Amino acid sequence: MAPIRLRTPAIAAPGERSFWLQDIAAAAVTPPLVGSACTDVAIVGGGYTGLWTALRIREAAPGMRITILEADFCGSGASGRNGGQLHSWYAEIDRLSAVVGLDEALRLCAGTVEAIDELVELQRSGSIAMDLRLGGWMWTASARAQEGAWTRAVQITAAAGAARFRTLTAAEIARRCGSPVSYAGVVEEHAGTVHPAKLARGLRDLALARGVEIHESSPVRDISPGPPATLRTARGELRAQKVVLAANAWLAALPQLRRHLYVVDSQLIATEPIADRLDQMGWEPGLAICDAQQQVLYYQRSRSGRVVFGRGSGGIAFRGDFGAGFNRHPERGQHNVRELHRVYPGLAGVRVDHDWAGPIDCVPEQVPVFDHLAGHPDIVFGMGFNGSGIAQTPVAGRILASLVLGRKDAWSRSGLVGLARRARLPPEPWRYVGAQLVRQAIRCKNDAEIRNAGAPAWTRLALRLMPGSRGDR
Predict the structure, then answer these.
(1) pLDDT class of 468 with cuts at 50, 70, 90
(2) Which residues contact 172 (CB under 8 A, 6 or more apart)?
(3) DSSP character for 426?
(4) Which residue has the higher pLDDT, 258 or 295?
C-alpha cells in the first residue's frame, strides 16, 4: 500500500514567532525521534488537539503506550499563536445544530463549559500556569450591519434552557472594554482569556508527567499504513498500532481531506505594554472581545498590559500548500493596526511591538470533523476548528480517544464524526480563484459596512461562493 505523504512545515524564524511564544522563550525540551521505536498510539502533532487526545487516551487506557511526534515544538503552530480567547461552543450552536442536531449540539456545548471548568481546576491546582482569567467574552457590533449577528445563537440557547448570554448596553460595553465604537452585543460571563503558549507548554509538561512520550523536532515525512503503521521522520521510524492525525492545516497535504479542507491565514499584532492606559480606559483584565464583521476581529489585553489584536485576512493557500509566507504577512499587520485605531482611537500613538500570522484549518460547515481515513481503519483524524479551539479541543480529544480505542459511546457516535456527510469544495484552480474573489468582496463589504454604507451589489453575489456562506459572528 502506498505511503501517506505529509508536508514538512516551514519553521518560523525566531522573530516571526507569536508574541506569546517569544514571551516565554518557547522551545523544544524533548529529543527528536532517532532510530526505531514502537508504540500503541502515535499522534502526529503536538498542539492542543494532539496533547488533549494523548491525555484523554491516558485517562481511559492507562496502560497504553502513547507517542507524540511534533515537527517543531509543542504549541508552535496555531496553539501558540492564537488570540487567547476562551469561550464555549454556545456561540456556534446554530452551526453545530445544522450538522449534529440540537440535542447533541447542546451536549457538545456543555462539554466545552466543562472544559473551561477543567482549565480553571488545572490552574487552581498548580498543574498549569496559563494566565487564565474569566473576565467574560463579549460579542459586539460597531456598525449597523453587525447588529444582531448573535441573535440565532442566543435564541437557540435560551429556548433550550441553557441561557449563556446576557444582552449588553452601549454604556456597559464602553465601561468594561473602553471602546467608544462598539455599542451593542452580548456577553458570556463564564469565559475569558488565557496565555496560549503557556497553556500549550503546560499541556506538554502534563502529558510528559503522565507518561506520554513526546519527540519534538520530528516532522513526519510519510506513513506506511499497517497494522502496524510505520511513521518516518528524518532520523527515525515509529511503528504504531493506531495513528492520530492532529496536524491542523497541514492535513491539507492529504488529497481525501483537502477536498473538504481549506487553509486561510490569520494575522495578529501585540502592542507595547500600556497597562496604566488600559486601566484608565476601563478595559477589564481577562475580558475577551470579538466583533461581528465578516473578517472577524478578536482582541484582549494580556496580563502584561499589551493589546493583542487579531483578524482573519482571508488569504488562502493554493491546493492547501503554504510555506514560510504564512508565518508573517507582507502587510505586517497594517489592516489590524487600522482596525485597532478605529476601535480604540485613543491608542493611535501606541507602538506595535509584534506582528505574526499563521494558517488555520477551515471546513465549509465551520465546525470540526473527525473520522477514520478512508481505507485505513487504524488512522483517525480531526480537523476544521476554524480558529476556535481552546475550549473545543478538550472535547475533540474525547472524540479522537474513543475512535482510537474503538469504543461505542456518545463520543465515537458524535455527529461530528463522518467526513462523507460533509460538503466538498470545488477543485483547483477554481477554488483558489473563487477564494480571491470572495476575499476582495469581504474586504469591500466590511469597509463599506463599517462606514454604515451599503456594500456594492457585486459583493453579495461574490459572497455566495464562500464555503458555508451565511455570514460570520
Answers:
(1) low
(2) none
(3) P
(4) 258
The number of beta carbons lying within 10 Å of the beta carbon of residue 319 is 15
Return d(Cα 71, Cα 75) in angstroms, integer. Answer: 10
Percent helix, strand and coil across the chain, each rounded to 5? 35, 25, 40
Beta-sheet pairing, 288-291 with 297-301: antiparallel
**In angstroms, rounded to a whole number, what is the distance separating the alpha carbons of residues 288 and 86?**
8
CA angle 92, 97, 98 (to 5 degrees): 105
CA distances from 266 to 33, 76, 373, 431 (A): 31, 15, 28, 19
Q: Which residues of 13-51 are buried (b: 16+ CB within 10 A; e: fewer)?
A: eeebbbbbbbbeebebebebbeeebebbbbbbbbbbbbb
Tens digits of per-residue pLDDT, 139-156? 999 999 999 999 999 999
C-beta atoms surrounding 178 within 10 Å: 23
- Exposed e or buried b for every residue in 55-68, given b needs 16+ CB within 10 A? bbbbeebeebbbbb
> How confident is the model over 338-364, as pLDDT tens digits?
999 999 999 999 999 999 999 999 999
Work out the angle between the directed axes of helices 48-60 and 196-209 (0-180°, nearest 10). Answer: 30
Q: How far apart are CA 115 and CA 105, in angstroms?
A: 15
pLDDT tens-place string over residues 158-217: 999 998 999 999 999 999 999 999 999 999 999 999 999 999 999 999 999 999 999 999
The dihedral sign for the CA sequence 128, 132, 134, 137: negative
List, for residues 433-462, the tens digit of each pLDDT value. 888 888 888 888 888 888 899 888 888 888
CA distance linking residue 4 with residue 294, whole number of Å: 36
Instruction: Tell me the C-alpha distance between 89 and 84, whole Å.
Output: 15
The amino acid sitting at 99 is: V
DSSP for 280-319, please give it: HHT--TT-EEEE-SSS-EEEEE-TTS-EEEEEEEEEE-GG
Residue 19: what are its φ and ψ, rounded to 5°?
Answer: -55, -40
Burial class (CB in 10 A: 0-12, 13-18, 19+), 157: buried
Length of the chain: 473
Report the distance separating Cα 378 and Cα 397, nearest Å.
16
Q: Write down the H helix ranges in 179-246.
A: 196-209
